[in-house]
# Entry
Amino acid sequence: VTDLAAEPKDAPGEGRPGKRERLVASATKLLHEQGIEGTTLAEIAAAAEVPLGNVYYYFKTRDELVRAVIQSRAAAIDTLLDSLSARPTPQARLKALAHVWGEQSDLVAAHGCPIGSFCTDLNKDGSELAREAAALLERLISWSGEQFRQMGRRDAAKLAVALLAGVQGAAVLADSLNDPGILRQEVRRLERWIESLA
Amino acid sequence: VTDLAAEPKDAPGEGRPGKRERLVASATKLLHEQGIEGTTLAEIAAAAEVPLGNVYYYFKTRDELVRAVIQSRAAAIDTLLDSLSARPTPQARLKALAHVWGEQSDLVAAHGCPIGSFCTDLNKDGSELAREAAALLERLISWSGEQFRQMGRRDAAKLAVALLAGVQGAAVLADSLNDPGILRQEVRRLERWIESLA
# Structure
């Protein structure tokens, strides 16, 4: 299953990714691990092996780089949802979505959900980009709502919020208590809950 | 019901709280609103109307002040749980706990859960105090587990994690989507869920 924390891939036929791609990949990783306020452009440039002086050629402001990270995460979510659409039933698709967090429980326990903690962090930062990042969660809620509708549930929109709240809350607890088992346990409970609604 | 974001109260018979109490109250409020990395000691001192030079008399390091905020939140949680213990049944106590987040949905949508986002923030910051802050969530999980046990549930520990995950995840969504209604909706769902387990 596609990684929630997926970094930009090399284009086919190319060797090492270009400088812009490397900067976005480094920023995606470091903003998740260290937070927005705790990460400098110099650290991002060093991890990307791009001279700091070159960063401004690709990204005039830090906000432009954060926006590129949001777009990279949006692309990863699209790829993930596309791959889930091959599952035969809406409940199988929803369970597979929840399962993605369970598979990444170690990463989430170490640094929080790559999507949820990113949104929380941008909100705390007072960034105007918080609204753009929230669209990542809205996309997952909207897709889940469509699956619940296909299951014939009239309360599909509320169930979608409940599902995303379940994984996001388990991510907060797993991160805070440094216990990936909490996230896996909650994902199993959510999978049984989805099955019970079918 | 006691406020999750409660600030230290004046001691009886005193007038204005002392400088230490004012500093802890300001830090509690500003760390919630702006995050840890985004808040300076100078801002905390100014909001507390304490000269910056005096801060070091009370708190030698920023960590000491953050620790005082954790202790202040722990005291607020103890007061809250004491007040809930007057309810006649364990399910009434659990519903009243969930209801606390619903009552503070505007605050949570604006700045995140005062407890959960504080833990996420300390974790992102890589602070050694993250473990101490996590004890706040552990206290709520442990108290909830005791209530579910009194309801005769063998899966009490897992249900307690599910309850706290529910409110924390709804807080992440309400904060990210800037929609207090999401939190109130989820709290109502959790209250019905608690009732269904009784």
